[in-house]
Amino acid sequence: MKGIVFTEFLDLVEDKFGLEVLDKILTQSDLESGGVYTSVGTYSFSEMLQLLQHLSAHTSISIDDLLLVYAEHFFGVIEESYPGLLATYKDPIEMLSSIENHIHVEVRKIYPDAELPTFEVVEKTQDSLVMIYKSSRAMHHFGLGLMNKTFEHFNSTATIALEKLNTDGTEVKFVINKN
Ligand code: HEM
């Protein structure tokens, strides 16, 4: 997992919950990296999972809700870092249906070791999209947060339903309807 995902996460935790909570979850976790992250490094996903688990236990906020809020913050990082990539799109449905064949393809060129999910488009109309998310990381709520913000970016909103296709959440169907 890319360092920027960690550094932005730690910044957000400090911002929302304070330095004491950040310190506490870093100390509680058994981190290969020693809890020192640079935005250009690469770290194991199990470190992110431990940080999320400890933060969730401490705050009584579910991991899914933490990932949702974090993704909404992360979209701002994307807007700042990759304005050109976003400018390719005029419409949220077009953008979301292009994650697999364009957006994450470009991400992979920048970060060859990125751990990315797959999004298979099952159905697409002008105002709706059905996609299947697959990833061993089960970060579907990170996807949901990015989707919400994608609509907001285009001054639009959508109703997004998420259906887990297996219990561990590594396969999830997203049904997206533009409002
Ligand atoms: C992960 C970039 C748009 C869904 C990531 C990661 C990066 C990235 C750098 C982390 C990879 C790693 O840590 O190894 C981008 C950029 C985008 C974009 C630059 C737009 C220009 C989107 C959108 C979605 C999405 C619109 C909406 C569903 C995800 C998910 C992950 C992810 C769910 C977590 C990894 C996983 O589930 O396996 N993306 N992304 N991305 N991205 Fe994107």
UniProtKB/TrEMBL annotation:
Q: What InterPro entries does the annotation carry?
A: H-NOX_domain_sf (IPR038158), Heme_NO-bd (IPR011644), NO_sig/Golgi_transp_ligand-bd (IPR024096)
Q: Where is the signal peptide?
A: none
Outline the extent of the Heme NO-binding domain: 2-160
Which SUPFAM superfamilies does the record cross-reference, listed alphabetically?
A: Ligand-binding domain in the NO signalling and Golgi transport
Which Gene3D superfamilies did the record assign? H-NOX domain
Q: Which residues form a coiled coil?
A: none
Superkingdom of this protein's organism:
Bacteria
What is this protein's name?
Nitric oxide sensor HnoX
Q: Name the gene for this chain.
A: hnoX
